[in-house]
Design goal:
Number of strands: 6
Order of helices and strands: HEHEHEHEHHEHHHEHH
Distance between the termini: 26 Å
Radius of gyration: 20 Å
Largest sheet: 6 strands, parallel
Structural class: alpha/beta
Strand order of the largest sheet: 1-2-3-4-5-6
Strand content: 5-15%
Oligomer: single chain
């Protein structure tokens, strides 16, 4: 429990590489760390939120974090504790344990209500992000009001699964490439991979003239929506590829092409059940 935070603490203490020092102020870049509060059914009180954060800070070897998020809305026995969790997040902010508050998997109504309550308990602008599933393959936030509401409130959408479990990398549409094993195989069914073929082809056509991969096109499409994608990487090659999605923008014609092609995947991929609570 908390092992990822302990690992991050080790990395955060490493000296930056020389080439990381080439920024505008001449100082080494420090990592920006965010962590989450899991609204487990046995966590029911406002006090459980700062208690959990203090434990995280100890594991992270930090005095505070730039962003602290509620991982999902409370459910089951914790369904009646969501206001308490907001109070706990506000307490974390007011006690200086975090610089900003985030939520995750909040629908449009819950996001709006939480924003108003946190404005009263913390201060204007304390709620800065809502992390939801969003990609070219899963565009529910555009249709269920989450994206529109976030823009209205000045809340940044942070997109998890931006590559749709690697579907949008295009690797499952290469010859002799098998579908993944394990849990991802349940998501990337044969019919889903087939339905994605027109989109993958369009992504290749869009990326080829500018030397960009499907991965980079998919991530840049999110950036063009004003969204911050969270990319899962397992090695240095994947880090470099993800970095290649930065520093440029798709044009309006390319965005329209991708919009049309992505319609082949409508209703093919399911969202996280708790995002509808």
């Amino acid at each position: 429990r908390g092992e990822s935070e302990r690992i991050i603490a080790e990395f955060a203490q490493l000296p930056p590489r020389p080439k990381q020092n080439n920024n505008t102020n001449g100082n080494p870049r420090q990592p920006v760390i965010a962590t989450k509060f899991a609204a487990y059914p046995w966590r029911l009180t406002a006090e459980s939120v700062p208690c959990a954060l203090k434990a995280s800070l100890k594991r992270l070897s930090q005095e505070k974090v730039p962003l602290y998020m509620q991982h999902w809305p409370g459910f089951f026995t914790a369904a009646f504790s969501n206001d308490a969790f907001l109070k706990g997040l506000a307490d974390c902010y007011n006690q200086g344990l975090c610089d900003a508050i985030g939520v995750s998997n909040f629908n449009a109504k819950r996001l709006r209500d939480s924003h108003a309550k946190l404005e009263a308990m913390a201060e204007s602008g304390a709620l800065v992000s809502n992390q939801v599933q969003y990609s070219l393959a899963y565009r529910a936030p555009e249709k269920n009001g989450v994206l529109e509401t976030a823009r209205e409130l000045g809340v940044t959408i942070v997109a998890y699964s931006p590559l749709a479990q690697a579907l949008l990398t295009g690797k499952f549409h290469e010859e002799k490439q098998k579908r993944p094993d394990g849990a991802r195989r349940l998501v990337l069914r044969k019919d889903v991979v087939r339905a994605a073929a027109p989109l993958i082809e369009t992504m290749r056509e869009v990326g080829a003239p500018i030397g960009k991969s499907c991965t980079q096109v998919a991530l840049n499409w999110l950036v063009c929506q004003g969204v911050v994608p969270i990319v899962g990487v397992k090695n240095s090659a994947q880090v470099k590829e993800a970095h290649g999605a930065m520093g440029w923008r798709l044009g309006s014609a390319e965005l329209e092409e991708l919009d049309r092609a992505s319609r082949s995947l409508e209703k093919s991929i399911s969202g996280f059940p708790l995002e509808n609570l």
